[in-house]
Specification:
Elements (H helix, E strand, L loop, with lengths): L2 E3 L2 E7 L12 H11 L16 H30 L3 H30 L10 E4 L7 E4 L23 H23 L3 H18 L2 H44 L5 H28 L8 H26 L3 H21 L8 H17 L10 H24 L7 H28 L41 H12 L28 E8 L8 H4 L1 H13 L5 E5 L1 H13 L1
Parallel strand pairs: 5-6
Antiparallel strand pairs: 1-2, 2-5, 3-4
Length: 579
């Protein structure tokens, strides 16, 4: 059986030896993936996996503190402007708070509606899972949300009795209360707070529950963390970034010693931007099993890196905008257009549709106005160096134009501001070098880098060998007569054709001892796996996510995820058609 998800199929069954890909979200699933793809002697099924630790809980609590401090200082500052009679500043400050918040709350509520709704009249995707250990035992469900209606405490996987009218009534009342609660939460602009608390709850549940439920809650915690990190990234660059430039421009325009409240607002916006970027990168790396996780030392280094570079960038913007308001707007629009075109030219693959990809590229263009954001796989040092050289030249030009309008002989304040911009950017580059040279998950940039694998004991790169068939097709097309004639004509014309059978090196005289491993269920996703730094499809396709969660919950063992391998499928097709 298969479950379609916008053209993709997700099916579950016993997998081959070379299972590739998969989510890092479940604990023992990581061990199984290591046994399937890693070298001999790697951790097999049931091995230790990632656990939710107390420092993860502290990270979420700090994120909540950053969120509340940013919003509270902005609203407090807007009220202060209103009481002082500065209606223009009040309107702009309140606009940069409410408009991005409304956009993010609508998106968050739309995700909730999709995750929690059960379409009437459609049975939903049909999914099934079969464990190779259990022989012929199979568990199936007709709805991707049906597995969550079973009792969480019961380990048995059997047919459930038909619900009575009283239990159905209680379920409807429960669903109504949840809908009312979520509506109220999003009307109060607290959708991200709810998701942070939910991620915290799921993480603690994965720490306290038994083995099977621990894996299930950890997987759901990763999904919730991914959602809130995406929402926060969108909100901070639509709210905190323009708020930071606005308040800095007002402070520079007034001159003298800054007031306490605008200084607090700018500081909170700056910390929010830096924290959100580092948190996004950490959750993204934690969600992928083909990348090493980002340590908290590396996350703190990223916070300091983005903190100082964004501070220098925003201060240069504020200095220039305090004198050349019109030209500043032209510069921002031109820089955004150039950066967006650069991102589109790189052919990113983050979203599931073309229009979503274009919107995403436009948002990344906004991020590139302030800081570096990696959107393409591979060694990014050349692109990152080019970007920071452009930013350095722009900061110097903007600050120089502002300084040219000041009095050089008597205005010592202007010289201090120029030194602050330069030193802040230099500190940001210093912490960036510290991160890449000492704290990068793959190892030092100047030394030998370790393979991007989450299993620290593995001495070889993750993933199956190059000749392993990781996703055999369900049905193979037969070669037609015209194709056979065309192939014969090509051979007669001297066109080189690949050999049908290839002789591979034989086994060593002494057999290599392999660890015995119990096969578990495999969820096959009929999509090519997205390359880092993109999210996996099961993190951004919500229907696929619901199906995977239902299969994971109804399976006695944590399933592994297997994406389609284009190259090996083509090799198998050529073999079939030639024979």
């Amino acid at each position: 059986m298969a479950a379609k998800s916008d053209g993709a199929a997700a099916s579950a069954g016993p997998g081959p030896e070379g299972v590739a890909g998969g989510a890092r979200g479940s604990a023992s699933g990581c061990g199984e993936a290591a046994a399937a793809a890693g070298p001999p002697g790697s951790v097999g099924a049931g091995g230790p996996g990632p656990r939710y630790e107390l420092r993860d809980c502290c990270w979420v609590l700090c994120a909540l503190l950053v969120f509340f401090s940013d919003g509270a200082t902005d609203l407090w500052l807007a009220a202060s402007y209103y009481l002082q009679g500065q209606h223009t500043c009040f309107s702009l400050t309140l606009l940069f708070v409410l408009l991005p918040s409304l956009v993010v709350q609508l998106l968050s509520f739309r995700w909730f509606v999709y995750d929690y709704s059960e379409p009437a009249g459609s049975p939903g995707p049909a999914v099934s899972t079969k464990d190779s250990v259990a022989g012929e035992a199979a568990i199936s469900t007709k709805d991707s949300a049906g597995a969550f209606r079973t009792k969480e405490g019961s380990p048995e996987q059997g047919p459930q009795p038909a619900p009575s009218s009283a239990s159905a009534y209680r379920r409807r009342c429960c669903r109504l209360c949840i809908w009312l609660l979520q509506t109220l939460v999003h009307l109060l602009q607290l959708g991200q707070v709810w998701r942070y608390l939910r991620a915290l709850y799921l993480g603690l549940q994965s720490r306290w529950r038994g083995e099977q439920l621990r894996r299930h809650f950890y997987w759901r915690m990763l999904f919730e963390s991914a959602d809130v990190s995406m929402l926060r990234l969108l909100e901070t660059f639509l709210r905190s970034a323009p708020q930071l430039v606005l308040q800095l421009s007002l402070l520079v325009h007034r001159g003298g010693a800054p007031d306490l409240l605008p200084a607090l607002s700018t500081s909170a916006s700056l910390v929010s931007l830096a924290w959100t970027l580092a948190s996004y990168q950490k959750v993204l790396r934690d969600s992928r099993d083909d990348k090493r996780p980002l340590s908290y030392k590396g996350a703190v280094a990223q916070v300091l890196w983005h903190l100082f570079t964004i501070a220098a960038r925003s201060l240069a913007f504020a200095l220039f905008a305090s004198v050349y308001k019109l030209y500043f707007g032209i510069f921002i629009v031109a820089h955004w257009c150039v950066m967006t075109f650069w991102v589109i030219q790189g052919e990113t693959d983050f979203c599931m549709s073309k229009w979503e990809e274009i919107i995403y590229n436009m948002v990344v263009g906004i991020i590139y106005i302030f800081c570096w954001f990696n959107v393409k796989e591979g060694r990014s040092r050349h692109r990152m160096t080019l970007y920071h050289c452009i930013v350095l030249l722009e900061n110097a030009a903007l600050t120089g134009f502002w300084y040219s309008n000041r009095n050089f002989s008597t205005d010592f304040y202007s010289l201090i501001m120029v030194c602050v911009v330069a030193s802040s950017f230099a500190l940001g580059i210093f912490f960036m070098c510290v991160y890449y040279c000492l704290l990068h998950p793959n190892g030092p940039m100047l030394g030998s880098q370790a393979p991007g694998c989450i299993f620290r004991g593995a001495s070889e790169p993750c993933g199956p060998p190059a000749d392993a068939i990781t996703s055999p097709p369900r049905s193979l097309p037969r070669t037609t007569g015209a194709e056979r004639d065309g192939a014969s004509a090509g051979e007669r014309a001297g066109t080189p054709t690949p050999p049908v059978f290839q002789v591979r090196p034989g086994l060593p005289p002494t057999p290599v001892a392999r660890t015995s491993r119990t096969e578990g269920p495999v969820i096959r996703i009929d999509l090519p796996r997205k390359k880092y730094p993109a999210w996996d499809a099961h993190f951004i396709d919500r229907r696929l996510r619901k199906t995977i969660l239902a299969l994971e919950y109804s399976s006695p063992a944590t399933p592994r995820l297997q994406y389609r391998s284009v190259g090996t499928t083509q090799e198998l097709l050529e073999y079939e058609t030639t024979v």
